[in-house]
Amino acid sequence: MVGAGISTASGIPDFRSPEIGLYSKLQKYDIPYPEAIFELNFFFHNPKPFFALAKELYPGNYRPNATHYFFRLLHDKGLLLRLYTQNIDGLERVAGIPPAKLVEAHGTFATATCTVCHNQFPSQDFWTDVLADRIPHCPVCTGIIKPDIVFFGEQLPQRFLLHVTDFPMADLLIILGTSLEVEPFASLSEAVWSSVPRLLINKDLVGSFAWGPRSKDVMLLGDLVQNVEKLAELLGWTEELRSLVQQETGKFNR
Ligand code: OAD
Ligand code: ZN
Fold it and tell me: Is 106 part of the annotated catalytic residue set?
């Protein structure tokens, strides 16, 4: 299970970190309170802040870091049952983790849906507008097109239901870079059997690791990338991770 903390090393701010988190930097968008940027009521009142944020997150502006590639390594070794992410930056896909292994619980910018007639559109249809600071409109009915990012109160994608069978099957749960504050995602942290070890890699103690720790819990607190590299070292994967990162970042530099 991962959240915004795994992408800060890629240059994308998280949401709730004091002063540097996105929610503390939204004043320039003139919104009543930070979470409004992901609320439908506010979006219909003023969609500009959300599209300004979308523009900042434009796929291609950012690259995966060692954390994303650590999960790629788990997958390459046949050890990854599933990666549940709250992130909407798409960096898990860029790191080469196949969509079948992913649950993008808070949606994706890969597609968008008209808020009026509900026609779905591929992303290239709205990025031209978003990058030019225009609000994308539906060619069928002129309604506003909204990227398929899950707003507060909206249903999570169908694939989220995979948790019903995935979590009872897991023999290890790793949780990285999330405040575990947003439901229903946060509660997945309690969906593995109590005999299953849970490993939290985060700056601070969060969720049930703080208020109801289990006997098999392990917490690695501090800088996330450093601790992921430490974990790789304990597994004897340091060289493999380094060469994977090198090989993959080489692709971007060509
Ligand atoms: P948050 O910003 O709430 O939490 C990020 C967590 O990562 C915090 O506990 C940070 O301390 C930690 N963190 C950040 N950088 C770190 C670093 N370099 N090393 C170690 N830890 C670090 O982000 P999420 O939990 O992902 O919704 O937020 C959940 C949802 O809230 C998001 O998906 C978003 C937002 O509303 C949507 O996008 C729809
Ligand atoms: Zn429409």
Answer: yes
**With bands split at pLDDT 50, 70 and 90, how would you rate the model's confidence at 239?**
very high
Whole-number Å distance, alpha carbon 147 to ligand 2 midpoint, is 13
State the greatest distance between any 2 C-alpha atoms of the chain, in Å, as a whole number: 57
Q: ∠ CA(186), CA(187), CA(188), 5° rounding?
A: 90
Q: How far apart are CA 39 and CA 48, in angstroms?
A: 13
pLDDT of 170 higher than 90: yes
- Residues framing ligand 1 (Cβ under 6 A): 3-5, 8-9, 14-17, 21, 38, 86, 88, 106, 149-150, 177-179, 181-182, 202-204, 206, 223-224
pLDDT in tens, 243-254: 999 999 888 876
Closest CA to 1 of 112, 105, 117: 105
First and final C-alpha spacing in the chain: 32
